[in-house]
Specification:
The complex is a heterodimer of chains A (330) and B (502).
Chain A (H helix, E strand, L loop, with lengths): L1 H42 L6 H26 L7 H17 L4 H26 L3 H20 L4 E2 L4 H8 L1 E2 L2 E2 H19 L1 H11 L1 H6 L4 H27 L1 E2 L6 H13 L10 H20 L4 H22 L6
Antiparallel strand pairs in A: 1-4, 2-3
Helix pairs in contact in A: 1-12, 2-7, 2-8, 2-10, 2-11, 2-12, 3-4, 3-5, 3-10, 3-11, 4-5, 4-10, 6-10, 7-8, 8-10, 11-12, 11-13
Chain B lengths: L1 E11 L2 E12 L3 E5 L6 H8 L7 E6 L2 E3 L4 H6 L2 E4 L11 H5 L6 E3 L2 E2 L1 H15 L16 H12 L6 E5 L7 H12 L7 E5 L3 H7 L2 E6 L2 E7 L5 H9 L21 E10 L2 E9 L3 E6 L5 H10 L3 E8 L2 E3 L4 H6 L2 E4 L3 H4 L7 H5 L8 E2 L2 E2 L1 H15 L15 H13 L8 E5 L7 H16 L3 E5 L3 H7 L2 E6 L2 E2 L3 E2 L5 H8 L5
Parallel strand pairs in B: 3-10, 3-11, 6-9, 9-10, 15-22, 15-23, 18-21, 21-22
Antiparallel strand pairs in B: 1-2, 1-4, 4-5, 7-8, 11-12, 13-14, 13-16, 16-17, 19-20, 23-24, 23-25
The chains are: A mainly alpha (330), B alpha/beta (502).
């Protein structure tokens, strides 16, 4: 009897250990964020001021939008490494259109069209031709990089941008940056799609078990494509906002959004539903990155150190997720 | 000379893969090893090949007790295991593959390419002088049979006494099989015994000197191949002591069957062919066969169209030009696959979310998912199927096999607004306890009673005998003539699965 009882006890201990680990995992990132925030608040004088906090929000709004898009990709188990250059593409395209006299709404539609086109090409390569998304989007990203520099000669595009456009990136409504409203809007839309619609459910389904989803009658190809299109679409709209914030279109302005965007998703995957990319998790991930960037900036750390710190954070987040869940990124 | 395994027990947590097995393998014979999936063949040959250690029991080579501590140790003692999955390195030449890990060197780690080619050619000429293979060709460009020969020569590189061949012909086209058969037969006269693991009974019978049958981890018998028929072998593989196939508890009067739901003619799909098959409303048709006979793949292809090559199909009287999962689902076909965690469920999802996978709109208001509404629908499905879980929010992977299977079936009924016209089950009670099994059978019968046509492809003969009205036996990729319920008996099933016309 004892011989049989022991494994049972062990199993029980293991499962309670597992559920404790899961609980810790869910909240440890939030706790770390809170500690980080408190740490900066206590040690850096200019950190806890209204203007700095609004600044953080403004800084992370584009990042959050890119991250929210990447969340769709991760949920469907597709990786989009071209988002940074898609940000750049529409950040050039929209100013170019505006300067040549295109009305603002049409120029923004141009960003939508550009995002849709990049997403369509990516998903064609991935779901019809069968190239793994990691590689396909690495290649399309390289192509977009070339296009961005070729179309601008490597120079920034500025001067003559309409006020309405600059207001999107720099203005405030009721004392709160317009970008913050945009971020909230995108997060809400993404959250609603992922958590409350059949569309989002099926994106998670094809990422969770493609075979099971397809045998249940789900169109796997469609939902994998849709996830990649959302990645590009969100990136393109973030690019339009970024150029408005910078007041110019810069061919290399989007590059850092790839790594930072991936980081927000990885950090987000440690919380809410560990191992799964969620919009809420990604939002907190962006907040995490934003607080770190801002705090390190204020203490005068240069960008190279920031880059090292972010790299370490990504490693820690991915290490936590892959050791505690059955994470299959690709 | 022999390798003798005595009183071998292999205990895994919860299951005993081998239960006091005694068997000896001669260096002068081809020894066939057969049994259904789960009989213990793989475990036995891994012990023989040194890659697994038995819980208890002894191994003796030529009468001297020994241990086979690792695959390398077994190799050193003259036992080589050629596994089912190819172990060749694509891109390298045949010669390089033959001498992989034992390349002749010029010193400083530089490979002597000329010596390598010469040695590979010598090995080929020594073992199989009748075979010509281009040893310079990239190994993956060679015919499958030649690749297998390369693997065998590599295994024979050292001084081997016993060669374990695991399903060597499974990937070969028929024409190439015979060449490999000749090669296998040529080994024992030269002092190399062969242990042949195969699902193809005709092959085992034709090639082997003796055959050992395992069933449920037990040694059933070892006997000369010449003294046994294929039907007897099937009998040994399947027979369960004290039980007969048709348990008689079943269904009573056959249901009145109605219109033809699905009709196919001259189907060729994957490695399976079926001349004609029809199923009517209210009818339960069983599909049986030995492992590898093709009945599971055939049942699956009726829903997915996977591997479809040619044939005519009519569904509800209408000709179909194309079969795919979404189209068949829209026509009112449900498919409940085997290997539920791989093919049907999402392990990290809750019971509720898994149930909502097929008809999510049942838990939504105007396209917006409502957790409350989903939970209500999930509770209804859980009650219908008697799914035992703490709550609809429990993760599916934490449920027992029987409850998982009920969810795998129940997800098709969750939110279904119309009755299914055809439901296809593959291994509907795989790994579930006896209570859940009875419940699942009752559901299948109820669904048939409500007018669905039902296909049950199963390796459980008693299950099929209990619930089916008609049984189609599959033999080596061919659908045989159907047996009617009045003809059901274990003997008839076994004869049909062995391809014996009675």
């Amino acid at each position: 009897m004892t011989a049989q009882a022991r494994p049972l006890v062990e199993a029980k201990e293991a499962s309670s250990r597992k559920s404790r680990d899961q609980w810790l995992l869910k909240y440890s990132t939030l706790l770390a964020l809170l500690l980080l925030f408190l740490g900066f608040a206590l040690t850096v004088d200019r950190f806890l001021t209204t203007s700095n906090l609004l600044n953080i929000v403004q800084q992370i709004s584009m990042l959050t939008i890119v991250g929210a898009g990447l969340t769709f990709g991760f949920a469907a188990r597709e990786m989009d490494l071209s988002v940074g250059y898609t940000v750049g593409l529409s950040g050039i395209l929209v100013p170019l259109m505006l300067i040549s006299g295109v009305p603002l709404p049409i120029a923004l539609l141009g960003a939508v069209a550009a995002g849709f086109a990049v997403g369509a090409i990516n998903s064609l390569l991935v779901t019809l031709i069968g190239i793994p998304s990691l590689i396909a989007t690495l290649a399309t990203g390289s192509i977009l990089y070339g296009i961005n520099f070729m179309s601008t000669g490597g120079r920034a595009i500025y001067g003559g941008l309409p006020d309405g456009y600059l207001f999107l990136g720099q203005g405030q409504i009721l004392g709160i940056p317009v970008l913050a409203y945009a971020m909230v809007l995108f997060v809400l839309v993404a959250w609603f799609l992922m958590e409350r619609t059949i569309f989002g459910r099926y994106i998670y389904a094809v990422g969770g078990n493609l075979k099971a989803a397809e045998l249940s009658g789900v169109n796997g190809r469609f939902y994998r494509s849709a996830a990649l299109v959302v990645c590009s679409l969100f990136a393109a709209l973030a690019g339009a906002l970024l150029a408005a914030r910078l007041g110019s279109g810069q061919p290399n302005a989007g590059e850092r959004y790839l790594l930072d965007g991936l980081a927000t998703v990885f950090i987000g995957m440690t919380m809410i539903r560990p191992g799964t990319a969620t919009v809420t998790g990604t939002f907190f991930g962006a907040l995490f990155i934003g607080v770190i960037n801002n705090g390190l900036n204020l203490v005068g750390m240069d960008t190279y150190v920031q880059s090292i710190v972010k790299g370490l954070i990504i490693l820690v987040a991915v290490a936590i997720v892959s050791r505690t869940t059955k994470l299959k990124l690709l | 000379m022999t390798v003798t395994l005595s009183d071998i027990v292999m205990q895994y947590p919860g299951t005993r893969a081998l239960d006091h097995v005694d068997v000896d393998f001669l260096f002068s014979e081809v020894h066939g090893l057969i049994g259904e999936n789960g009989a213990g063949k793989t475990t036995l040959v891994s012990i023989l090949g040194g890659s697994r250690q038995p819980t208890s029991g002894t191994i003796a080579i030529a009468g001297v007790e020994t241990a086979l501590a690792s695959a390398g140790d077994a190799l050193a003692k003259g036992i080589a295991h050629v596994s089912q999955e190819g172990s060749l390195v694509p891109g390298l030449s045949a010669a390089q593959n033959i001498l992989l890990g034992d390349e002749p060197r010029l010193g400083l780690g530089i490979i002597d390419a000329r010596a390598l080619k010469r040695r590979a050619a010598e090995l080929l000429a020594r073992w199989f002088p009748q075979v010509t293979i281009d040893l310079d060709a990239a190994v993956d460009t060679l015919p499958m049979a030649d690749q297998k020969v390369i693997e065998i020569i590599r295994a024979l590189r050292g001084d081997m006494r016993l060669l374990i061949l695991d399903e060597p012909t499974a990937t070969l086209p028929a024409r190439e099989k015979e060449n490999l058969w000749r090669i296998i037969r040529s080994l024992p006269p030269r002092g190399v015994g062969v242990v042949l693991v195969s699902h193809f009974l005709s092959e085992v019978k034709a090639l082997s000197d003796r055959i050992t049958v395992l069933r449920d981890g037990r040694h059933v018998t070892t006997l000369p191949a010449a003294e046994v028929s294929e039907a007897q072998l099937v009998d040994f593989m399947l027979q369960r002591a004290g039980k007969t196939a048709a348990s008689g508890e079943a269904t009573g009067a056959p249901r009145a069957s109605g219109d033809i739901v699905l009709e196919i003619a001259d189907w060729r799909v994957g490695g399976v062919s079926a001349d004609h098959f029809t199923i009517r409303t209210g009818e339960i048709v069983g599909m049986i066969g030995l492992t590898g006979a093709g009945h599971f793949g055939f049942a699956r292809s009726l829903y997915t169209g996977e591997g479809f090559l040619s044939g005519q199909t009519r569904f509800g009287g209408q000709p179909l030009s194309r079969i795919d999962a979404r189209g068949m689902k829209a026509r009112g076909v449900a498919f409940i696959p085997d290997h539920r965690m791989e093919n049907s469920l999402i392990g990290e999802w809750s019971v509720r979310e898994n149930l909502a996978m097929v008809h999510p709109q049942a838990g939504a208001h105007a396209g917006v998912l409502s957790t409350g509404k989903e939970e209500k629908a999930a509770r209804a499905a859980m009650a219908l199927f008697n799914v035992k879980a703490h709550s609809p929010e429990q993760r599916i992977q934490d449920l027992s096999g029987g409850n998982k299977q009920k969810v795998s079936i129940g997800k098709w009924l969750y939110g279904a607004t119309e009755r299914y016209r055809l439901m296809i089950f593959v291994e509907p009670t795989e790994g579930v306890d006896i209570g859940a099994k009875r419940e699942i059978h009752r559901h299948i019968q109820r669904l048939a009673g409500e007018g669905a046509a039902i296909i049950v492809a199963s390796s459980d003969l008693m299950e099929v005998a209990d619930i089916a009205d008609r049984v189609v036996p599959f033999v080596q990729g061919r659908a045989g003539p159907a047996l009617e319920r009045s003809e059901f008996s274990e003997a008839r099933f076994i004869a049909a699965m062995a391809g014996d016309p009675q």
